[in-house]
Amino acid sequence: MNKAASQKPAGLWVSKTVVRVLLLLWTLIVLYPVFWTFVTSLKNNQQVMLGKPWDFPSVFHFENYANVWSRAHFGSYFMNSILVTAGSTILSLALASMTAYILARFSFKGRGLMYFIYVASMMIPTTLGLIPLFFLLSDMHLSNSLLGLTLVYSVGTIGILPLGIFFLVGFYKTLPRELEEAATIDGSSFSGTFLRIMLPLSSPGMVTVGIMNALTVWNEYIMATVLINDPMKYTIPVGIAVMQGEMQYRTEWGPLFAGLSISMIPVIVMYVIYQRQITGGLTAGALKG
Amino acid sequence: MNNNLRKKATGGMALMLVLMSLAGCGSGSKETTTQPTQETPTTKTETDQPKEETKDAPAAEPKVSGDFEIQYFVGGYGDAWWKEMLGEFQKKYPDVKIKESAGSQINEQMKPRWIQGNPPDLVYIDGAGSNETQMVKDDQLMDITDWVKQAKNVDGEALTDPLIAPPQDYGGKNYTIPLVFGSWGTFYDESLFKEKGWDVPKDWDSFLAVSDKIKAAGINPYIHTGKYPYYIVGGLLNSGFVSENGDNPQILKDQEANKEGSFKNDAVAKTLQKLVDMRDKGFFDNASFGITHTDSQMLFLQHKDAMIPNGLWLENEMKKDMPQGFKFGFIPSVMQNPGGKYIAIPYTSNIAIAKKAKNPEAAKAFVEFIFTKKAAVRWAELTGALMNVKADLESSGASDVVKTAMKYFNGSDTIVAPVFKLNADLEQAENDATIALLQKTITPEEWMDRMEKTAAKSR
Amino acid sequence: MINLDKKPKAGYAARRRLFIAGFLLPTFILFCVFTVYPLLRGLYLSFFDWSGGSETMNFIGFGNYKDLMNDDIIPTAIKNDYFLVFWKVILIMLLATFFAVSLTRLKLREYGFYRVIFFFPNIISVAVIGVLWSFIYNPHLGFLNSFLSLFTRKPVETNWLGDSHLAMWSLLPPSVWAGIGFYMLLIIASILGIPSSLYEAAGIDGAGQWKQFTKITLPLIWEQFKTSIIHIVITTLNGSFIIVKLMTDGGPDNQTQVLGYYLYQMGFKQFHLSYGATIGVLILILSIITTLILQRLLRRDTIEM
Fold it and tell me: Residue B164: which pLDDT band, with cuts at 50, 70 and 90?
């Protein structure tokens, strides 16, 4: 690389510039819609209707935010989404790592079959399980509850458990066996070896799987719509969809965009703070996966 | 009658009999044994004050108590009327614990509860994902045939007397009572028509003529609501079917009943041809497709389009976005041939008691509570639309469009078709086929074949 | 397989069995209850005629499957599903690889910045993305037409979501927009795992960037590449439902219908829940077949480092 660069610096400079232009272009494509959301959220209907989406609002209608904040419960949507996402990500990770460790390291009868069942179950359409899951939850007195939703996310048909197992089995297989063997010889119990040696070693993979699964849960919409019907227990996607639904009967673009903005702001803030852990975690874990 | 009710009923029976005799029972009709408690509220009100609204009920009296859950869809009419009625109902029956399951997605959200056999007591059936025909088919609603015949509202009138549209008939039985009544039609930009000197269309020929003029003036004559094609079906096609069928609305009832040939006949073919003519003359705004009705209504308000198919809720729905001086004009139909009558295609939204209601007596009491003239006036004032109760609206806050529409309904030039509702499959198929026809991806012939195929499948 | 059984000790085998069972069973039981049971229940439903509202169901054997064969909308939906799968795989993998290679191999200083920006759409809720993009496409109010009008003499009034030829294509940009960052990061990770000595050697041999990419990068990231493609395929077949629901409802006239949304429409809007379940079975079968075929197609000797 360095050699090549010194051999033809001009060619590299050109290609770097071309690439930079393209990267900037994509940056614009990524950021402009978000920026536009914020701009539109400050307009009133007349300003939107002018059909000049580029323009800044002549008057900033901050009341759109107050309006939508008082009507929808974004505060609780957030808390709910965070609770459910954190709960199900952690639970499914715990379960997946245990299963994955066994499937990767121990041989026993039915191992192949079990692995196949898990992997194949990733392809079950989410919606297929919707109605049975609803009945199941209400039999367990868990309908309309965030705990029930968390359980469904962790081990239900949205498939984050099998994804975790699939990914972590691959990850464990790449880890060296010497450490475990040494620990066993030292008299460590099976679970002790797992907890003290394997878990720490697999943490990059766990972070990657955790982020992938957290994103899936964070975005999940259809299960949450059907399983939760108390507005105070809505997650963000449900809150947004309900707002869009209401827009069919009330034309309020400003408040709708204010709602979209409100739902994005904390995510953006959290992302800016933790971007290194998130993007870095994904790259570090995937190294081995 | 479920067990729950039976328990409550036996408990309340003795007290009720006493009350009945005290009240002198003005209801006049015999109680049926299966519905022991439902008369109580009526009885009670009549003792209180037969004509006026009640304020407070003496603590000992109300038989209506316990949990009462109502499911209502919140759409164009908002929820102000519901909140007000429920508030007053609560005042009248302080022992009732009201639970509201309401919102724009409520049909989807409550659906599992209906399947599970744990429905709310009362349901207002409206909005996406609801279909009363299906609910009846699924045996989810209470048979109210006998009750509705003798029920009285809180003012002491027979419940069905003042109704504009009677409870729909399902093979001799009633399950629902229409709460909202209205009509589809074509809305036009009245101020713009006046300003430009355009004539309000009276029939198909004058509609085409004025559309030509509008197009020449650089304005789109007609916008529809592409993502929700049933506005075209309700506002244009159905009236055309009736008109071309010699003004006989039976064709719509036949379609509702999946009758063979009801979607493929001369009347339908001629109507579709008219729609195709509109399309080929370029009268439709290209923006129509793929946008929601609110978006298209906004364009209409901005004078970008001169006419739009819609229902009587329109004015209220768009009230706060009306530009200065905007006026809605309303014509029930435009597809009638010269000399033909206007065809008004009505729609209703119904209220029904769940078959598995846990507190049907409260549900019935609430029905009796809301089907009054006073509530109808409040409905008109709060929603700008029509409740299904004949009330004097001239002095009320009902919108001008609603008042205009009432004049059409009462005039001799208008045929008001009966209320009808296609099943969900036919509705979907008609929406799809109509959009496809407007996009030139199918011919009228294919439109009819598709519908006949769907109807055959439903039979 | 590690051989932990070497140490002969009393009760060792029992402890080992207990450990395996203790680690596997709780998960497997929960999984059976919340995933396998609903699936079997769905399969079971597909043999009945049930609206989803009544308390009784009629057993009709393969009736729903026969209807499926004769349903004109099913082929359209399958075609659209694979349209999305095909173009999403091509566009996402192409762009994600391009970005990943540019960011890592060209050693740009702005690497960290772009990594963060490009991943950003992935953290936005799909619901928000769907609503946002429907407005971007709005013929009069959205900025797409308004942007295009800058370059034309007549204002552009294209009806992106309403035109039967364009609607399906219009669903692609939001999906690609929202998906690239994630796969880009995965590819970046594999590229970073390639020892730089390989590139140095290639550089000495005079191999250009393109040659280095085809000879070194691509073969070495192939496993990750394959996983990413299969992941896109599965999530598309399973998840395109949401974007369709929020943006087009499958319209105009089913031109953007996909199996996932058709399942939802039939099961929940048209009151044929058991037919919806049958569509679900079809999705499951198609996903499995597609994945198996892809596994075979993408098989390529991975280079051991």
Answer: confident
Q: Is residue B402 part of a domain?
A: no
B328/B8 Cα distance (integer angstroms): 52
- In chain A, what residues touch B75 (CB-CB under 8 Å)? 248-249
Residue B244 CA to residue B248 CA, distance in Å, equals 8
Backbone angles phi, psi at B64, to 5 degrees: -85, 115
- Cα distances from B426 to residues B14, B128, B259, B431, B436, in angstroms, run 50, 15, 12, 8, 15
Is a pLDDT exceeding 80 seen at residue A186? yes
- Percentage of chain B exceeding pLDDT 90: 53
Does one domain contain both B352 and B335? Answer: no
Find, in chain C, the residue whose alpha carbon is nearest to that of A24.
C114
Residues of B in contact with A246 (CB under 8 A): 74, 103-104
Report the pLDDT value the prediction gives residue B52, as an integer from 0 to 100: 42
**Which of C35, C23, C29 has the alpha carbon at shortest distance from A108?**
C23
Put simply, the answer to whether C52 touches B227 (Cβ < 8 Å) is no
What is the residue type of B261? G
- Mean local confidence (pLDDT), B340-353: 94
Both tokens assigned to C289 = 């077949």
Tell me whether A245 touches chain B (CB under 8 Å). Answer: yes
Alpha carbon C16 to its chain's center:
39
First to last CA, chain C: 21
Residue the block writes with tokens 């063997």: A181
A72-250 architecture in CATH?
Orthogonal Bundle (1.10)
Decide if pLDDT at B38 tops 50: no
For the domain made up of C72-297, the CATH class stated in words is: mainly alpha
Judged against a pLDDT cut of 70, whether residue A55 lies above it is answered with yes
User: Are residues C57 and C49 in contact, defined by beta-carbon separation less than 8 angstroms?
Assistant: yes
Say if B196 falls within a structural domain.
yes
CA distance B81 to B87: 10
C200 contact B CB<8A: no
Helices (H), chain A: 2-7, 9-40, 45-49, 63-71, 74-105, 111-121, 130-139, 146-155, 160-174, 178-185, 190-193, 199-201, 203-219, 222-227, 236-247, 253-286
- Take residue B218 and report the two structure tokens written for it: 């650089």
Out of B101, B111, B321, closest to residue A45 by CB: B321
Strands, E assignment, chain C: 48-49, 58-59
Chain C neighbours, 3+ Cβ pairs < 8 A: A, B
* Domain assignment present for B403: no
Å between B108 CA and nearest CA of chain A: 7
Residue B407's closest CA among B316, B345, B344, B335? B344
Per residue in B413-442, pLDDT tens? 899 898 888 888 999 999 999 999 999 999
- Tokens, residue C259: 């199996």
Q: Which residues of B touch A242 (CB under 8 A)?
A: 103-105
Q: In this predicted structure, what is the pLDDT of residue A154? A: 95
Quote the strand ranges of C19-169, DSSP E.
48-49, 58-59
Distance CA B329, CA B385 (A): 15
Chain C residues within 8 A of B115 when measuring between CB atoms: 52-53
Contact B119, B87 (CB under 8 A): no
Please state the domain count of chain B.
2
What pLDDT, on a 0 to 100 scale, did the predictor assign at position A9? 62
Contacts (Cβ under 8 Å, ≥6 apart) of B254 = B262
Report the distance separating Cα A6 and Cα B146, nearest Å: 95
Q: Chain B contact for C55, CB < 8 A?
A: yes
pLDDT of residue C157: 84
Domain with B329 in it: 182-347+409-458
Q: Is residue C184 within 8 Å of residue C118, measured between CB atoms?
A: yes
Q: Does the ipTM surpass 0.90?
A: no
- Output B19 or B145, whichever has higher pLDDT: B145
